[in-house]
């Protein structure tokens, strides 16, 4: 299993923790492993039994940390959506010219995506099969609408081209940004700062010299 | 099932076709329905039994049209990859300035994507679980390398900005283009021609006025 397992004391002498989940795991580390497994096999195809096996603990030990698989999904989606929604509340997103606010929000989105890569990956792969998934997708759409409103405002200000519909601009921008989860390797030669610069340069100024 | 079923004579008097698949289906229409089901439920999760049920014919009737589920996948991927690879062989892709060839190939890619939407969707969702899937992904990577070479040539010609690595440009361009399968509705108000214009305008000239 290539899931990113946290370092876990597997010594059988660590008996004190046996009743309350194995030492080395807390809710956050269980969540992190669960999200990797969800991303690899799909949320629906992953049972609590598979999670327990991957974690090397019993199902009841998982239930010590979280009441259900659904709660793991809820926590994971909150990491992604909460991070993205926070960007919209920051000064750079709420004051200044519309085009500068748009750039600020896009840079913030890329930062959240890179910092919370597995969580955002899970969010982007949701198909809306349950009420919770549909609620998450509705929050994602609300986020997108905020971007579309910023694009529209910047077009009215005369700073952005007006021949592309604001909704199309948003879809193309998020097509570019969301695809980053499919190929970006944090810690590699391309820093998240340069990645954000590249996305903003291509989107705002274009590839042509 | 919201799969795009072809019009099928369901009259029980249509007995002549019973032995050789039901009238109204040929290999191409079986393939089309199969690809919709693969895209909805995942290739691996789809059995020949599920396909037969969706088509309203027996499994043996499917086997009259195709020898295996794997062959359906192979045919579907050929529709997508064959279409994309053909673009690279056309005059506009092989002669002229590198930036013009790049634009030509990107427009051709968008056209194939829109015309063969379910097939390209299937290709883009592959995870490389079988030898055939890995072979398809290798052909996709070869296609991407051709684009990277064109970007690199255009940078050397001085027509494209040089501060973004050619490989990153390709990833961002295909992030934008591939995401079209997630939201584009053929036959809607946004024509495929205008969509291609919008993608090319944003990527080459940028959003800023």
TrEMBL record, chains A, B:
Biased composition (Polar residues): 1-14
Protein name: TetR family transcriptional regulator
DNA-binding region of this protein: 47-66
Domain HTH tetR-type, residue spans: 24-84
Pfam families according to UniProt: TetR_C_24 (PF17932), TetR_N (PF00440)
Region: Disordered, residue numbers: 1-24
Gene3D superfamilies reported for this sequence: Homeodomain-like, Tetracycline Repressor, domain 2
Sorted UniProt keywords: DNA-binding, Transcription, Transcription regulation
Classification via PANTHER family: HTH-TYPE TRANSCRIPTIONAL REGULATOR BETI, HTH-TYPE TRANSCRIPTIONAL REGULATOR RUTR
Source organism (scientific name): Arthrobacter alpinus
């Amino acid at each position: 299993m290539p899931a990113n397992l946290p370092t876990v004391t597997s010594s059988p002498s660590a008996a004190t923790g046996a009743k309350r989940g194995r030492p080395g795991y807390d809710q956050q580390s269980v969540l992190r492993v669960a999200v990797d497994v969800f991303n690899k096999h799909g949320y629906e195809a992953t049972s609590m039994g598979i999670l327990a096996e991957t974690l090397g603990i019993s199902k009841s030990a998982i239930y010590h940390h979280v009441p259900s698989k659904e709660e793991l999904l809820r926590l994971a989606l909150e990491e992604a959506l909460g991070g993205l929604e926070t960007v919209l509340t920051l000064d750079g997103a709420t004051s200044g010219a519309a085009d500068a606010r748009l750039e600020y929000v896009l840079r913030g989105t890329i930062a959240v995506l890179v910092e919370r890569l597995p969580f955002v990956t899970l969010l982007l792969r949701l198909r809306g099969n349950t009420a919770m998934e549909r609620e998450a997708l509705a929050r994602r759409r609300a986020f997108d609408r905020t971007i579309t409103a910023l694009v529209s405002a910047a077009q009215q200000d005369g700073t952005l081209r007006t021949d592309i519909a604001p909704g199309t601009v948003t879809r193309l921008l998020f097509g570019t940004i969301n695809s980053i989860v499919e190929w970006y390797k944090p810690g590699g030669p391309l820093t998240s700062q340069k990645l954000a610069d590249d996305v903003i340069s291509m989107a705002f100024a274009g590839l042509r010299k």
